[in-house]
Amino acid sequence: MNIPQRCDLCPRMCGADRRRSAGMCGGGAMLRAARAGLHMWEEPCISGERGSGTVFFSGCPMKCVFCQNYRISAENFGMEITSGRLAEIFLQLQHKGAHNINLVNPVHFLPWICEALDIAGDGLKLPVVYNSGGYERVETLKLAEKYVDIYLPDFKYISDELAVKYSSAPGYSSIAAKAICEMYRQKGPYVIGDDGILLSGVVVRHLVLPGHSDDSIKVFRRLAELLPPEGILVSVMSQYTPFYKAKEIPGLDRKVSDEEYERVVDVVAELGFDGYTQEQTSAEEEYTPDFDLSGIK
Ligand code: SF4
């Protein structure tokens, strides 16, 4: 595998020489991951009864002030591993009964991950899930096309002001829109097996932020313009909790009210989307796994 010498994997296109230094995402010359294991807290069609075989990668091109995984995304907690070790981890997760392999935040390590999937080869029988913040370049997604079965992107904002203020990601809305269209071009309408587990397709997630249900509604209206609502699944998340810097940011320092969340859910139903909503009671830290290198070492 050739390590990028002028990295342009993500929309930052920061040009880092990944052989010698880390880019704006924190990714350097070697894969870095913080946890691998069976994860029960994804959507039911992903986690099923046995769990999703999740690998959390360290670093992130996005800079969300409310990131619940900030220890790994912003603080880069994790351990360097080879592509060969990652291939072993995939096979170990399969052996444990995982329904799929779930790559959390893979873009800045995509060539390394593709190498690991090549090493695992035909021994890996599970669908591969590409779980991302939606901040992706179409060119990079094309590298993933032959390896990935399911895309699980966020569509976080329509407002550029919010994207800049809360994620330092100018142009996010149009970048994510193009990325999600490319994901759908690759995978087409979703397919669920007889056991209720997703085999292929696109599931778009959106986390409703406190005070911003208007923007959430615009996200789903835009999504309905971009793709046939019956061709994808959506997941409307209410679990926002003021993690990381958000604890200190007025307006972001509270949970989402029932009224705010229900406004969004009503529009999602009107638009004809199918998918998942959450119980308001789930808005707790139980969604944050321990990042302890388990499954990685
Ligand atoms: S993936 Fe990382 S190193 Fe590459 S362009 Fe994006 S921020 Fe820079």
Key phrases:
297 residues, alpha/beta, TIM Barrel, ten-stranded mixed sheet, 9 helices, globular, binds iron/sulfur cluster
Number of helices: 9
CATH superfamily grouping = Aldolase class I
What hetero molecules are bound to the protein chains? iron/sulfur cluster
Oligomer category: single chain
CATH architecture: Alpha-Beta Barrel
* Helix share, percent: 25-40%
Would you identify the regions where 5 or more consecutive residues have pLDDT less than 50?
none
Query: Biggest β-sheet: count, sense, barrel?
Result: 10 strands, mixed
Provide structural commentary:
This protein has 297 residues and is of the alpha/beta class. It has a single domain, classed as Aldolase class I (TIM Barrel, Alpha-Beta Barrel). The chain is 30% helix and 18% strand. The chain contains 9 helices and 10 strands. The protein has helices at 44-47, 70-73, 83-95, 110-120, 138-144, 160-167, 172-187, 213-226, 258-270, and strands at residues 31-39, 52-57, 79-81, 101-104, 128-132, 150-153, 191-192, 198-207, 233-237, 274-277. Strands 1, 2, 3, 4, 5, 6, 7, 8, 9 and 10 form a 10-stranded mixed beta sheet that branches. Helix 5 (138-144) links the parallel strand 5 (128-132) and strand 6 (150-153). Helix 3 packs across helix 4 (110-120). The chain is globular. The structure holds iron/sulfur cluster. The site of iron/sulfur cluster has 14 residues, from loops.
